[in-house]
UniProtKB/TrEMBL annotation:
A GO CC annotation given for this chain: mitochondrion
A Pfam family annotated for this UniProt entry: MnmE_helical
Keywords linked to the UniProt accession: GTP-binding, Hydrolase, Nucleotide-binding, tRNA processing
Listed name of the protein: p-loop containing nucleoside triphosphate hydrolase protein
Amino acid sequence: MATPMNGRRFYGDPTIYALSTAPGRAAIAIIRISGSACKDIYHSLCPGQKPLKPRYAAVRTLYRPWAKPSPDNLLDSSALVLYFPAPKTVTGEDLLELHVHGGTAVVRAVLAAISQCSSAPGAIRYAEAGEFTRRAFMNDRLDLTQVEALGDTLSANTEQQRRLSVRGTTNNLSIRYESWRKMLLAARGELEALIDFSEDQHFDESPSELASSVADQVQDLVLLIDTHRRNAMRGELLRNGIAISLLGAPNAGKSSLLNRIVGREAAIVSQEAGTTRDVVEVGIDLGGYLCRLGDTAGLRSAVLATAKAQQEHMQEKISMIEEEGMRRAKQRAIESDVVIAVLSLELEGKKVVLKPDQEVIDTAAELAEQKSNVLVVLNKIDLLSGHASELENFRRQVADALPHVRLENIFAISCRDAEIFTAPDAGHIPSFLSGLIRQFEDMTSAVAATDDDTDASIWQESLGATERHRLLLDECQFHLEQFLGQVEAGTQNTEDSGLEEIDVDIVLAAENLRDAANCLARITGKGEAGDVEEVLGVVFEKFCVGK
Ligand SMILES: Nc1nc2c(ncn2[C@@H]2O[C@H](COP(=O)(O)OP(=O)(O)OP(=O)(O)O)[C@@H](O)[C@H]2O)c(=O)[nH]1
């Protein structure tokens, strides 16, 4: 059944068909058929009608197969039919497209008719999920990186996911991986020539010169791969969503802010401190970025009491449940891509004060020092009515307490004003959101390989690399570093012992280059058959029937 084609298994039989548009009532439904029986199916459904001109749309009447073309046997009175001959088709096989009227009964009747077009059992069957794309891959019409990008395109929900996946459907990523692989294979070839011919042939370079020039090339490649991996991680933020944590003292207004951002009452807001005990997570599209926004339990120092307890001169102990809530809040913040520390102004008698809890400040300061991903919002600025000039002082106080947070990342807001008023920037929430989206842009734009490399746009496509690519690149980098370590140690030995010949185990070094090249081949699907089959299952899981 299977015949070899371009070194891969050719998926010639059986012919597959499927409804490629969404099921349900619609103006038009498109049925795709791929395989060697396309022409036979056409002649069975459109008996006596003109042959199709390849790649031209034609209007045809569809009848039940093997039946007289009479009104009784009519399936669809006018369908648009297109025929694409192999091999330059989306699947690499003959392809027939039937654009029929989108009524459920019409579609069902045409699908049933297609399955009856051949008397040979199993020659024509309904396609499995992703089978058209699988055939495109098997017939070299798409490589694995393009297949993955296609899967992402189909599941893209936000604008940024769409942009990322559409970029990946070109084969630029594969071209890059292939060029790296070829470079490694050439380097390996040079090294192996040393083993095979060094005894009886003269080389322009001495063995040690050759080893160090190969090491220089490999070193450059390691830098490129490392940049590519960093960009892949940035792309993963777009694909998987940016995790955001709201961190702050009880009653600072975390739940109120979450509700203002989401635009609905996703979290409970209450005057009672400690309302949020566990992480409340909401998925949201912010400016085209998929985000997972988490409201967390309030953080407070053990010695500090709530406002009510303070007034009554008593201290509240932190219960075990609250302690667990705080632990989860901190853990979630550590694991998040962005942390929003919510501080609030409070009324002390008639005076408005900023009394941030030390636990919140310490946690935010530590996070800001480790990664520059902390934004601060100073909430409840409506309490300042009439004393708005004091706001700058409060902002400065926050900046002093959190020196690693940039001043432009400290925002003053009022969740209450945002709730009550309808003005475009009520409560300054939209200004804060613009700042948040700027942070997303910074985190997800491509980085260049070196500081001198000012044009990061050539790295743009690296954002489309998937987690699978990144893991294989990690493995590739490991082998390259092994190689560099061997050359370095060998060169050192040569120098120390005054040897003329380089003391590097060339066989082992070449083996590392081979393993590194193989990792790159596995990314594009040009690896060994077993590897390819293994990833195919994972990649095609995402696909729907008809794609
Ligand atoms: N004046 C004023 N009050 C606010 C503002 N934002 C929130 N509040 C009030 O502050 C109180 C606490 O708000 P929440 O949003 O529940 O605070 P929280 O940080 O989620 O509290 P916990 O769940 O206890 O951690 C509620 O009574 C809110 O109405 C604001 O901008 N101005």
